[in-house]
Amino acid sequence: IQTDAAINRGNSGGALVNLNGELIGINTAILAPDGGNIGIGFAIPSNMVKNLTAQMVEYGQVKRGELGIKGTELNSELAKAMKIDAQRGAFVNEVVPKSSAAKAGIKAGDVIVTINGKAISSFASFRAEIGTLPIGSKMALGIIRDGKPMTLDAT
């Protein structure tokens, strides 16, 4: 989360709350040109914090979800070269054999455009979304294959 809330130096780990006092994130850093507490603040979203703390309690470490794909950003040049109608998404370059992605039927050349109905604008947003889901989560992946939209179920 990017915020304009004042974050004092040393307040990394402090709560970022809304006007109702509800936790929306944990402060991590501030970019302040003059070295003070006014600038651009950054925080980890609360839903990610909940998942990470639950993993720390259960496993003693953080385990990140992954599907088993290698990919890249889908940009207009790549979309044109591959004759893909979509303009945004996670372009699949390679699927790891026997991975969750392979079991779900994902193929190289697919473009992942949604996870559980949430739009995926880039490969980075795909990785971030997968990383926030608990290990073993079931998900519906909206993809475009050969110009046609499809939905695949993955775990």
UniProtKB/TrEMBL annotation:
Keywords: Hydrolase, Protease, Repeat, Serine protease, Signal. PROSITE patterns: PDZ. Residues 56-147 form the PDZ domain. It comes from the Bacteria. It holds the Pfam family Trypsin. CDD domains: cpPDZ1_DegP-like (cd10839). GO terms for cellular component: periplasmic space. Coiled coil: none annotated. The keyword Repeat applies. GO terms for molecular function: serine-type endopeptidase activity. One of its GO terms (biological process) is protein quality control for misfolded or incompletely synthesized proteins. The keyword Cytoplasm does not apply. Belongs to the peptidase S1C family. This is Serine endoprotease.
